[in-house]
Design a protein that fits this description.
Layout: H1 2-29, H2 36-43, H3 47-53, H4 57-79, H5 85-100, H6 103-117, H7 119-141, H8 150-174, H9 179-193
């Protein structure tokens, strides 16, 4: 039994190391300029060991993108004050925008991932992490008199996520100096949509 656990633990550790290394190299050099062999060598494993865990570099990028979303989710959970939904939406949006100010994250999440995975696959990953939670907060934030249904809440959530993506691009391209303005813009948009 302990041997099985140690094998599972070793597998988890190896995958974690490979994912961290891939993220670092993709961030430094870009996805297209990083090879599987470099990732394996920098992680201290063979390319065969890497291929044991992933079919190829694109599959590894998918896990890197999921790790970035997981990191953002943990940041947002740490900020959660348990207060009203608009404040939670605002905090989570600002946390995303702050993450986009990190050039490495912006490159992976907003440039390389959509280019490599294709827009639809990239969007599916984004929605997997954020759409349901955003819909729930939008539904909680809307006035009780709003009776236009679940589809409107879904569309409002998509509008907020789309706005954050574009504002994130703005922050990624212009850096820290764009962060405060992007946060204010998101605040205005959020409060106007949820009146």
């Amino acid at each position: 039994m302990s041997t099985r656990r140690s094998n599972v633990e070793r597998t988890r550790q190896t995958r974690g190391q490979l994912t961290r290394t891939a993220r670092e190299l993709f961030s430094e050099r870009g996805y297209s300029s990083t090879t599987i062999a470099e990732i394996a060598r920098s992680s201290g494993v063979t390319t065969g060991a890497l291929y044991h865990h992933w079919a190829g570099k694109e599959a590894l990028l998918v896990d890197v993108v999921h790790d970035i979303h997981r990191e953002l989710a943990l940041r947002i959970q740490a900020l959660d004050g348990g207060d009203e939904p608009v404040a939670r939406l605002l905090r989570s949006g600002r946390a995303f925008l702050a993450l986009c100010a990190d050039p490495a994250v912006a490159r992976l999440l907003l440039l390389d991932a959509p280019a490599v995975l294709g827009y639809e696959r990239w969007r599916q990953i984004d929605e997997q992490w954020w759409l349901s939670a955003t819909i729930r907060l939008v539904e909680q934030a809307r006035p009780p008199a709003a009776s236009d249904g679940a589809e409107t809440s879904r569309q409002l959530a998509l509008a907020l996520l789309g706005a954050l993506t574009y504002l994130g691009h703005e922050v990624a391209m212009k850096g820290e100096q764009a962060l405060a303005g992007a946060g204010r813009t998101y605040d205005v948009l959020l409060t106007s949509l949820l009146r």
